[in-house]
């Protein structure tokens, strides 16, 4: 705790943070509206807005044309003051998305990948995806403030992938360090299911929920947990791995859908589960049996999470979220048999973009921490943050 | 957020809270030591100590006799300024413990109960246990500042017992309201496994751990979760109920131990499991088979919790904690087969007192919130807090 003296500048900073928080991701607002929403006096609000405008965080926007009389001045957060990139590195794909400081997506790229591709090939593909995404917006690497990456596997707090069942090349790999050499800014690496869970609470069906179980269901099955409004990593960053519980049967869970008797020979393996789910929707009894077997397994792991955590909402996300209409009813009936309190059950609306959007939201959290947290250093103008001393980035 | 002006008194309060926090539950300290530990200047520390002494929260203690020269003055928190009571209301027992504001236990009582006792009888027994506990210290009901109660069942945020498998009379019962009529102070009611988990992090083997899975194992099986340093209740206060997962088999888990072939006829049912556990410790193969079957079930529910939450430590508490030496090795070997990261595994040292101690710690948290939280009203002298307007207490 700081000593009592000299803390008026500190209070001014806290007031500035309140104003910034009110403006982030919102419409432009007048001084009176800002004073209302923040509880600050109008003179204090004016003082803060002047300071933030001088720094470059806030700008006045021109009045709407055709307005009669003298309209009140309106101010907005300069979300275009910097750029972030989200990357989703899966076994079979690489996605990149470029966003402004409010998380609005400006450009996206996607390219296929092979699970067994050698490390150099995968890194080259990542660089291509990122460069193409920047090119779409006429930007370059040096415009990036932060890159956040979601990938499959156990990722520790330093961004090292301890193990990954889906990408053999990811094994005890300092991915944050490797990508730090590719980008001239801070790179953050986190487990993909966790980032997808974050996206659901920031912009998806779990928006503003404090306790969320996110089911990341597709070729692989995983979970991401939001507890008391925060991403839950656990003591050793190994939280969310209910897939390992033998009694839930999640490790080979999708095989029920991949190998159902109705899947035609020659169908690419990545389309098999979708074929079974579509046939079940159309009433095929063999497909419905396969869905029932899959739902049995899905329900065991989900019930364990619901009984332990009592979340407000369970979100079915990942590749199978397109078939939430087929999967949620049997999941619901099974959960109702054992759960003391039923959470809300929803299918994700973010589809295949859940991880890359979560990566962007994670990058925003990081920047908010650097610039706008109550315990951040004194407020400073919007300039790309120096790469952390933790990372090996040559910048 | 408050406006900028007039916040020096606010800063003085924050400084006072820092000093109080440093003194709580600790040895008496000199001004220099306090200034060191808090980071405040020595004049600020002196000012705060004078204010707290005038209020009655802090007192100077006499120098140790036989000290040479002029010893520095030392100060301590006046833990004896108020009194708390913890109650543990189980199906078969009622425990009461009286404590000072630092949670030091001053007196304890325990009496048996019957699961099927009518509500009035159980309430009368609670009042007897509490009165006897106060009598041991020469105190009366009016000396109590807060009473916290742990009981079996699903307890909602308002202290209503929604359901209880062990106490039939506890069914959709406003227990907080009923006990509020018994005590002339604020009464708080919470699930017993959660309070026991809290006690482990405040004074037990999980002291200071941020993520804890507490196994409450005995005649009944339950869990209490501490996540990121806080008691986890869940959205509808139904967290921790992995006992309901059929695949874990916890609901009849203890029957493996109660009904093993070696239990002599005529042994009271409450001693059967202990008999089997003791025989297993002594090498009886039939008893060891029963323990192995029980450990299989215990491990499924525990693995679900560990895989989902990745806790720092798992504590085996409750009645069976006396047999932790018998139960932990088979639990450990089963968890090692499936868990990605093994947490620390420990037996509780709090024994049968875990719930009543947790209730005391819960009452302390409540008082800290009233008196010493950063967002509490202005610092005030130690006087029994008024009963909350939420409770129906007639005071």
Automatic annotation (TrEMBL), chains A, B:
Highest taxon listed in the record's lineage: Bacteria
Matching Gene3D superfamilies: 3.30.420.40, Winged helix-like DNA-binding domain superfamily/Winged helix DNA-binding domain (1.10.10.10)
Pfam families reported in the protein's UniProt record: HTH_IclR, ROK
Domain named HTH iclR-type: residues: 15-60
Family: Belongs to the ROK (NagC/XylR) family.
Protein name: ROK family protein
């Amino acid at each position: 705790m700081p000593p009592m003296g000299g803390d008026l500048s500190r209070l001014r900073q806290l007031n500035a943070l309140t104003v910034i928080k009110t403006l982030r991701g919102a419409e432009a607002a007048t001084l009176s509206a800002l004073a209302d929403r923040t509880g600050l006096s109008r003179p204090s609000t004016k003082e803060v807005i002047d300071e933030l405008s001088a720094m470059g965080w806030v700008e006045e926007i021109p009045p709407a044309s055709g307005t009669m009389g003298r309209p009140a001045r309106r101010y907005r957060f300069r979300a275009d003051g910097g750029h972030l990139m989200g990357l989703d590195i899966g076994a079979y794909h690489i996605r990149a998305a470029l966003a402004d400081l409010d998380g609005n997506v400006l450009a996206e790229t996607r390219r296929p990948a092979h699970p067994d591709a050698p490390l150099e090939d995968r890194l080259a593909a990542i660089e291509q995806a990122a460069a193409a995404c920047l090119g779409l917006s006429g930007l370059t690497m040096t415009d990036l403030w932060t890159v956040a990456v979601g990938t499959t596997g156990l990722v520790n707090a330093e961004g090292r992938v301890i193990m990954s069942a889906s990408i053999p090349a990811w094994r005890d790999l300092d991915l944050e360090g490797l990508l730090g050499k590719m980008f001239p800014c801070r790179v953050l690496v986190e487990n993909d299911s966790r980032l997808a869970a974050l996206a659901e609470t920031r912009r998806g069906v779990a928006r503003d929920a404090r306790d969320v179980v996110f089911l990341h269901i597709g070729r692989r099955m995983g979970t991401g947990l939001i507890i008391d409004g925060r991403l839950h990593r656990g003591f050793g960053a190994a939280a969310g791995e209910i897939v390992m519980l033998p009694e839930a049967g999640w490790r080979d869970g999708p095989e029920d859908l991949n190998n159902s008797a109705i899947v035609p020979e020659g169908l690419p393996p990545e389309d098999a589960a979708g074929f079974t789910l579509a046939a079940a929707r159309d009433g095929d009894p063999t497909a419905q049996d396969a869905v029932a077997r899959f739902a049995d397994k899905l329900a065991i792991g989900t019930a364990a999470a619901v009984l332990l955590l009592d979340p407000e909402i369970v979100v079915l996300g990942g590749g199978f979220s397109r078939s939430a209409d087929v999967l949620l009813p049997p999941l619901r009936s099974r959960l109702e048999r054992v759960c003391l309190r039923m959470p809300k059950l929803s299918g994700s609306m973010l589809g295949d973009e859940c991880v890359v959007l979560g990566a962007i939201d994670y990058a925003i959290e990081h920047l908010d921490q650097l610039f706008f947290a109550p315990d951040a250093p004194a407020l400073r103008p919007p300039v790309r943050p120096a790469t952390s001393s933790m990372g090996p980035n040559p910048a």
